[in-house]
Amino acid sequence: MYKRILIATDGSELSQKAVDSGIALAALTGGQIVALQVVPRYPVSYFEGGASVPNAEIARIEKQWADGAQATVDAIKASAAAKGVTATAITAHSDLIAESIIAAAQKHDCDLIVMASHGRRGLTRMLLGSETTHVLTHSHVPVLVLR
Q1: Tens digit of pLDDT for each residue in 127-136?
Q2: What is the mean pLDDT of the chain?
Q3: Which of 1, 66, 75, 116 is an S-S bond match for 14, by CB 3.0 to 4.6 Å?
Q4: How far apart are CA 119 and CA 11, in angstroms?
């Protein structure tokens, strides 16, 4: 049924549920997985005249984030391989998290996206938005959300 499953993670404990479920589903269906973590860019300044951070420090922080993301998806790939599931580990660099997830699913010809919901409610959800909701409402690929 599902031949290529994109598992989107942010490396959190809740995302690990989505990772485990996505790998198990791929094992059941004989499918493959694409493990993805989107790395945002460092916010330089939101306000005119805000404190600036040296470019070298921004580059160091962004490299640290990218290396951490690559380690996360590499660990997913290893976990999948241990269960006999073929996996590809990728990262994307963008502030548009949901759009990057949808684009990766399209690029890698995935037929399912598996991701976690952080379960924000009320004012927090309204202010912070929800990448999961955005993926759910804009993806042309089915989405499995775990809580």
Answers
A1: 445 888 889 9
A2: 88
A3: 116
A4: 16
